Amino acid sequence: MAHNSEQVIASDMQNANCDQNNEENGRVDEGDSQELIKSTRYNDGSVKLRNPNIELMDQDILYHLALGSGSHDLHEMFGDVKFVCMGGTPKRMETFAHFIMDEIGYKLPAGTQLQDISAFSYRYSMYKVGPVLSISHGMGVPSVGILLHELIKLMYHAKVKDPIFIRIGTCGGIGVEGGTVVITEDAYDGLLRNSYELAILGKIVHRPAILDKRLVRELKSLASNDDPYDTISGKTMCTYDFYEGQGRLDGAFCEFTETDKMEYLEKLRDFGVVNIEMECTIFAALTHYAGIKAAIVCVTLLDRLKGDQVMAPKEVMNEWQQRPQILVSRLIKKHLAQMGRLKSLASTPSSIKSPRRFKLVQQESEAHE
C-alpha cells in the first residue's frame, strides 16, 4: 500500500510541476487574461458576475450575510470598499477591524462603535472600517466557498471597482518554525493539483487555483528587516481535514505510521510546500474565476516536521496571529496612500432602503441557521 501511495504522489508531483511550468508568472496567457477581464468587469472597472440570472431577480438575498439587494442600499453601504479581508474566527476578524481602524485613522462618530453587520446571519461576522471589510469565514473549504459566493455578489450589487481580497489565517509549517509569516505563492490540494475540484450537476469541474503574483511580490517587499520574525513565500497545500488529511497521528482514526507520515511530509517539503491549511484552493480558485486580485497571508503555529499538536502558550499564539495582520495593514496603508484615501473618515449612516424587506432578510437569514 505504501508503494502505491508513493507512486500516486510522485505522479501528482510530476503533473503539478507541468501545470506550474505551463502557468508561470501570472499563469494565463494574454488572450485568456483579456477574456477573463471581459467576463468579470464592466467598462468602469466594477465587478461583473458570471451569472446572468442574478440581474433578473427582484431581490437577491445574501442569506449568510443577512443582507439583500432590495432591503439594503448596498452601493451606499459598500460602494467604497477596496479591501476585503477574511479569517477563520469572528474574534480574530473583530480584532483586525479594530486594529486596521487605528492603522488607517478611521474615525467613528462620537458615541458609536463597530457593529457586526451580519449578526443576524448567525454564520459569519462582518465589520466595515471605511474601505476595508473584515469578515470571518469559518473553517474549511465549504464554509469559505459559501462566503465567497455571497461576497462576490455583494461586490457586484455595491458596484465595487477592482477590490482586493486577502485571507489572513493560521497554518502548520513544513520545515518552518512557529511564528513565521507565510505568503502563499501557489495553492495546491491534497493531491498536489494546482486547482479546486467540485461536482456540478454530477460532473467534476476543476478551476485553476491562481493568486495574484504582483500582490505576492508587493507583500514580500513590505516585510521589514526589523520584524522579529521571518516572512517567507512558497507553496501552500489545502486539505479537507485537520487530522488524517494533514497526516496527523492524533486524530480519532489513524491507519498510517510515524514513518509514513514523515515520508509524506518530506515529499511535500521537497516539492516546495512550506505550509498546510484548509482554505487556499477554493479561495484562490473563486477569486481568480471572479477576476478579483487575491492574496493569502498566514502565520505558522508549529513545524509539522517536529510534531502534530500546537504547544505554544495562548499569549504567544495571540502575538503570532497579529503578525500577518501587521503585514496586510502595511499593504492597505500603502494602497490607500497612493489613492489619496489615507485620512480620517466618517462612517456612513444606516442604509436601509426598505424596512419591510429588511425584516424579511433578517427572517430569511435566521431560517438558514
From TrEMBL:
<dbReference type="GO" id="GO:0005829">
    <property type="term" value="C:cytosol"/>
</dbReference>
<comment type="function">
    <text>Catalyzes the reversible phosphorylytic cleavage of uridine to uracil and ribose-1-phosphate which can then be utilized as carbon and energy sources or in the rescue of pyrimidine bases for nucleotide synthesis. Shows broad substrate specificity and can also accept deoxyuridine and other analogous compounds.</text>
</comment>
<dbReference type="InterPro" id="IPR018016">
    <property type="entry name" value="Nucleoside_phosphorylase_CS"/>
</dbReference>
<feature type="domain" description="Nucleoside phosphorylase">
    <location>
        <begin position="82"/>
        <end position="333"/>
    </location>
</feature>
<feature type="region of interest" description="Disordered">
    <location>
        <begin position="1"/>
        <end position="37"/>
    </location>
</feature>
<dbReference type="InterPro" id="IPR035994">
    <property type="entry name" value="Nucleoside_phosphorylase_sf"/>
</dbReference>
<feature type="binding site">
    <location>
        <position position="246"/>
    </location>
    <ligand>
        <name>substrate</name>
    </ligand>
</feature>
<dbReference type="InterPro" id="IPR010059">
    <property type="entry name" value="Uridine_phosphorylase_euk"/>
</dbReference>
<dbReference type="GO" id="GO:0009166">
    <property type="term" value="P:nucleotide catabolic process"/>
</dbReference>
<feature type="binding site">
    <location>
        <position position="248"/>
    </location>
    <ligand>
        <name>substrate</name>
    </ligand>
</feature>
<dbReference type="GO" id="GO:0044206">
    <property type="term" value="P:UMP salvage"/>
</dbReference>
<keyword id="KW-0808">Transferase</keyword>
<protein>
    <recommendedName>
        <fullName>Uridine phosphorylase</fullName>
        <ecNumber>2.4.2.3</ecNumber>
    </recommendedName>
</protein>
<feature type="binding site">
    <location>
        <begin position="167"/>
        <end position="170"/>
    </location>
    <ligand>
        <name>phosphate</name>
    </ligand>
</feature>
<dbReference type="Pfam" id="PF01048">
    <property type="entry name" value="PNP_UDP_1"/>
</dbReference>
<dbReference type="InterPro" id="IPR000845">
    <property type="entry name" value="Nucleoside_phosphorylase_d"/>
</dbReference>
<dbReference type="GO" id="GO:0004850">
    <property type="term" value="F:uridine phosphorylase activity"/>
</dbReference>
<keyword id="KW-0328">Glycosyltransferase</keyword>
<comment type="pathway">
    <text>Pyrimidine metabolism; UMP biosynthesis via salvage pathway; uracil from uridine (phosphorylase route): step 1/1.</text>
</comment>
<dbReference type="GO" id="GO:0006218">
    <property type="term" value="P:uridine catabolic process"/>
</dbReference>
<comment type="similarity">
    <text>Belongs to the PNP/UDP phosphorylase family.</text>
</comment>
<feature type="compositionally biased region" description="Polar residues">
    <location>
        <begin position="1"/>
        <end position="20"/>
    </location>
</feature>
<feature type="binding site">
    <location>
        <position position="123"/>
    </location>
    <ligand>
        <name>phosphate</name>
    </ligand>
</feature>
